[in-house]
Amino acid sequence: MDSFYSVRLVEDKCRGCTACLKRCPVEAIRVYDGKAHILHERCIDCGECIRTCTSHAKIALTDNLSDIHRFAFPVALPAPTLYGQFRNSTMPGEVRAALLRMGFSMVFDVARGADLLTKAVKAQLDLADRPRPMISSACPAVTRLIQTRFPSLLDNLIPLRQPMEVAAQMARRQAAQEYGACPEDIGIFFITPCPAKMTAIRKPLGHETSQVDGAVSMMEVFSHIKPLLGNCPPDTGPSPFSREGLCWAASGGEIAAVGPHNSISVDGIDQVIQVLEEVENRSIDGLDYIEALACPGGCIGGPLVYENAYLARNTLEQIRAALPESPGIAPAEQLPAEAVYFDQPLQANDSMKLHESIQGAMERLEEINRLVERLPGYDCGSCGSPTCRSFAEDIVRGLFNETDCIYVLKDTLKGLAQTMVDLAKTRRE
User: Fold this and answer.
1) Are 221 and 300 part of one and the same domain?
2) What pLDDT score was predicted for residue 392?
3) Which listed residue, of 12, 32, 104, 392, carries a Cα 20 to 30 Å from 207's Cα?
4) Is 346 a domain residue?
5) Are residues 230 and 293 in the same domain?
6) DSSP string across 36-89
């Protein structure tokens, strides 16, 4: 279980082009023997390599749609992003009806979990003793990024479970109470726009076990829903979620739901890193909250979606405008605090630590700095590492040799050639 990661390499398709090498935000990819290799202990499953790879050699491992039949009462847990995948004024009720036609016994929207979490976030922001700025924990890729690259900011992460986890608990209760489903018969399947959510199910963040039994790619679900639209009566009941809950799918939606605070929304892994660096360096003052999403545009820009993120945002805005006001979360739907908050602290990912001891780490750091001075500084990636500095770290860790750099090798061979010339001259004399 601890070794699970969603992003995988299809070795036969990899051309060793190094494109993914440059895009990985945590330097979790190396290229050697003509193929890319993922350093799984560093991977945050953000899916940037999936977007980048023109050979389609990176994939996201998710559950198959057929896996829902392992349970007598399978429940679909659609992310709000799903409703942004369909054009032509397709409303959520039509999509939910199609999901039921596909074999799900019940549909429970993740947006309802977002509605509940909105209240919890507001409560956290009212706490004066919490470190500022607080950082949203809704995106598991960002949470793992902080664990790996910014462990000093772990206390800034708001200790709330992801919307899918909260929604899954609400769905289990509803399936048992309203449908009389036995607990062992209920299977909760999240319809995911990204690989990070799949990993968060297998390797939960802030809690021991996930309430979600599996995750199916949104791309796969889309291909099954599309032909069913218009062929089954839509769900015409009142909207089960609020307009605000729906908007958590796009960047800025969580902040809009939470309400006025000194907050910012940042999306796209590169922009998130820039903001977190400023927070770590204490160059941002007076900020209360950061909504940070790894994918461009938010979840609507996930690597497992069908629709263009800009068009998906537009579709969601149209749906939002057409939705009637929701009564919100009823008192009976509320969950106890232990079901909403983390029940264990997040730990730093030590995969980038140079040595177990401080002394050993300092010695390795000095050696790395010496190597960096000797390297060309081109960050070309031809050595198989993303930058000259990461190459120096790899040398110290024993992964590469200095002559794996073509420029160092060239200089070395040039020096050897000159030595041989000098030796030949000496012998003639």
Assistant:
1) yes
2) 93
3) 104
4) no
5) yes
6) EEE-TTT-----HHHHH-TT--EEE--B-GGGGGGSSEEEEEE-GGGGGG--TT
Tens of pLDDT, residue by residue over 119-168, are 899 999 998 888 999 999 999 999 999 999 999 999 999 999 999 999 99
Whether 52 and 84 map to the same domain: the answer is: no
Confidence at residue 238, expressed as pLDDT on a 0 to 100 scale = 60
pLDDT value of residue 1: 42
3-state class of 166 per DSSP? helix
Please say whether the dihedral angle defined by the alpha carbons of residues 40, 42, 45 and 51, taken in this order, is positive or negative: negative
Query: Can you give the length of the chain in residues?
Result: 429
Euclidean distance between CA atoms 174 and 176, whole angstroms: 5
The CATH code of the domain that includes 383 is 1.10.15.40
- Pair (197, 296) in one structural domain: yes
> For 417, left (φ over 0), alpha (ψ -120 to 50), or beta?
alpha
What are 61-120's pLDDT values in tens digits?
999 999 999 999 999 999 999 999 998 778 888 999 999 999 999 999 999 999 999 989
Q: Which domain, by its residues, includes 286?
A: 65-340
**How much of the chain exceeds pLDDT 70, in percent?**
96
In degrees, rounded to 5, the angle at the alpha carbon of residue 357 between the alpha carbons of residues 356 and 360 is 100
Q: Which helix (H) or strand (E) holds 165?
A: helix 163-179
Asked if 171 and 108 touch (Cβ cutoff 8 Å), the reply is yes
Residue 321 and residue 195 share a domain: yes
Q: Find, among 141, 325, 366, 351, the residue nearest to 240 by Cα.
A: 325
Q: In this structure, are 331 and 363 located in the same domain?
A: no
The total of structural domains in the chain comes to: 3
Alpha-carbon distance of 214 to 226, in angstroms, equals 22
